[in-house]
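Comment thread on ticket #2218

A.B. wrote:
> Attaching the input chain for the structure job we discussed in standup.
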Amino acid sequence: PLALGLYTVNAVYGDTITMPCRLEVPDGLMFGKWKYEMPNGSPVFIAFRSSTKKNVQYDDVPDYKDRLSLSENYTLSIKNARISDEKRFVCMLVTEDDVSEEPTIVKVFKQPSQPEILHQADFLETEKLQMLGECVARDSYPEGNVTWYRNGRVLQPVEEVVVINLQKIVDKSTGLFTMTSSLQYMPTKEDANAKFSCIVTYYGPSGQKTIQSDPVVFDVHYPTEKVTIQVLTQSSIIKEGDNITLKCSGNGNPPPQEFLFYIPGETEGIRSSDMYVMTDVRRNATGEYKCSLTDRSMMDSTTITVHYLDLQLTPSGEVTKQIGEALPVSCTISSSRNATVFWIKDNIRMQTSPSFSSLQYQDAGNYICETTLQEVEGLKKRKTLKLIVEGKPQIKMTKKTNTNKMSKTIVCHVEGFPKPAVQWTVTGSGSIINKAKETKYVNGKFSSKIVIAPEENVTLTCIAENQLERTVTSLNVSAISIPEYDEPEDRNDDNSEKVNDQAKLIVGIVVGLLLAALVAGVVYWLYVKKSKTASKHVDKDLGNIEENKKLEENNHKSET
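C.D. wrote:
> Ran it. Output below, let me know if you need it in another format.
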């Protein structure tokens, strides 16, 4: 490298400076010397080396004490390079006839420390020019330059928007520079989360280089320009009994901490934090909700619908009716949207709604009318009707001789609710029969049966009694020697009509057979009677034939 056409040595601050003597060693060399030149041009000798005695001498120069080293080839080394070492050094080779000189220029470079952004603003306010911070790079040589960046782009000075001021201070003891660049800046909302940094540009032995600071993000304050209200619930659909939280927010920084909430039915706004909570809401909470800043500027609104479901069952609870009575039943629904209604009887879902024009015992039971609101989870209502159908005891008695003809079965068919108690007695003697068997009590009906083998005619009495009435019915039963076949036992189920039809069919067949037998008997009697008359005529005719034969024989004999 050359400086103004002269040989130059570039050295790093603190390293060793090495300067070769760029002269050819002449014949007859006596000694070599190094000197440097003062700013006024006067020389200062610093090192001497004899070519004959090989000894080295260093001049008493305070700046270079214990820092110099002169080699055999007259190369001069200076340890711990300083900024003050930037001089013009001269190598001198002396003979008896001549003095040769060769100058060398020394340049010293020092890399600055990584720049830092100091005295940072706590926050920035929009539309206000304020000090953002100072970028400081220390101990540089030669002096460097500082550039500010925003999100990686250079910040150019703009009047009243971007104001940059650079100061360079040199340390007189070291000769090193400290660069300080201050930045005044007017931020906007877009500067929120923006990264600010600075870069110092400096020169080193190999040329121009840069060092960048760590980026800094500033909290940018700006006023609220829009207010937003939100409904915070566990479900998007609100129903009666839910809790509702209203949240009001502003888009400023820092965000507003207090708002006015306007509730349906309230004439004045309610001052609150950014949250307003309503618990166990009812249907009258349906309506428009608003919130605004405390100065009543910038308002937002939302509409809330509180879904509800009412069910009215008439009648409900426990209802007691008499058999045969009519009972109108209605399940009325009132809701905020379409509802689904269904009926359950004794834990079984019904296909149609119950309707009672003439109550029967099988109509008794536990009825539930249940409704749910479509698309509203958890909103359902139900009411119950416990229907009791009462009736006085009704009795029908039947009898029949068993197939073994050794006993007779007497049955007392009983209807009524509450279930009647049945007692058998023998009329006349008043004795009570305790060996009766009962069938299962279903839909208000059951049967009590006894088996007897009476030696003579008896009259049996069946007594059925519940809380409503006492009913008594008697039946005459012949002695076991006389077969009896009364009406067949009632079937308390859906097959009763089929049994009756079969019985009618059997009776019809029996009657038909009897009529056929009677007709056959009459025909046979007529046939027999006609046969006897015919026989008499035949006998008479046969007698006349015999007599004719005898007359013919007698006539033949006479002729002979």
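A.B. wrote:
> Thanks. Noting for the ticket: The CA atoms of residues 286 and 305 lie 5 Å apart.
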